[in-house]
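Our consortium's second objective concerns turning raw sequence data into structural hypotheses that experimental partners can test. To show how far this objective has progressed, the report includes one record in full. It was chosen at random from the queue rather than selected for favorable results. The single chain below, 382 residues long, was entered without modification.
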Amino acid sequence: MRILHITPFYAPAWAYGGIPRAVSSLARAQYALPGIEVEVATTDVLDARHRFHGAAANVHYFKNVCNSWAYNSMLLLPMGFRNFLEEQLQSFDIVHLHGCRHLLNEIFVRRPERPPYVLSPHGTLPRIETKILLKGLWDRLFGRGVVDGASRVLALTSAEATRFEGIDSHRIRILPNIVEDPASKKDIPLQQASFASTFGINSPYLLYLGKLTPRKHVDTLLQAFSSLNLPDVILVIAGNDMGSGRRLRALSRELSIEKRVSFTGLLIGRHRREALAGAELLVYPGEHEVFGLVPFEGLFAGVVPIVSDDSGCGELIQEGACGYRFHRGDALDLTRVIAGALHDRHGRSQMIQRAQVFLRRFAPESVAETSLEIYREALRHQ
């Protein structure tokens, strides 16, 4: 089977959050299976100012016209992508589209002859978070052709599947993200000291790791942290600023906790792994998290997460009994949960043990095999 993944972002565009991590993990896992050929078509964006200038086997990086447009408005204009499809599309058995409301998908679906395809929205199908009016305008201009033409629409969790309005249930399948141990990718020993020395962190710390956007509710975490009587503990906020950083720094000053809050920016590689391994707790307070890779990577690293109770992430944490949940957006409840978790060392240890079993369902080979079953089903019913 020859598979083509079409994705707006791919490794190493980590500034864009979960999609590049999820797609690159899936493509690698599929490639490792016998009889499977995998290629990826994507753009060269890394962030608002930088492009990827390297090369990777079986990955086609198309130069984007303007990276700031992509970063701020998801307006991707990949040069050469249309010609690539014209020359090579018919050589693939199935295409896997990732994300919604970007031009790579629209260019693909307008090909007069194309292979069957499946769509993974990765949480981007509903009009939520930011630029809601722009998303509505996109839907009016382009319609639902990408969604309606998909043989199967893949949800990461059952919670995401409930948000697939207007999609017949027989077309919906569950394909979770692959979750890998951050230490398995290490090229150097896993030592917390290097991260701590780089960012001047000499105290126990709580960690938030993720993009800085309104939906992530880092403001709720700051308010909760300010109410904790923990003068020797600091809060590390690690993530790419997608527009909320200035407001969050101002809030930390308003709450008089700026000296106990460290904004590190985007963490990758060794620093990301060591930040997870050294944290007392991982707090992931966002809403509408259809999966949430970070809390499960944290469990692999030995740190227990606290997540919102409204989402697919909270659903999975509850099912695996491997973390704590708080009421979405409720800073007082988050304060209570953090305080209780810090004093519950035995409970945290048990959660880490349970997680080792629960996370097996998200192992690369298991998820890759599930994806192939979905592809074969789509091909049978084309």
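The partners drew two points from this record. Confidence is low (pLDDT under 50) at residues 186-192. Residues 364-380 form the longest helix (17 residues). Both points have been shared with the crystallography group to help prioritize constructs.
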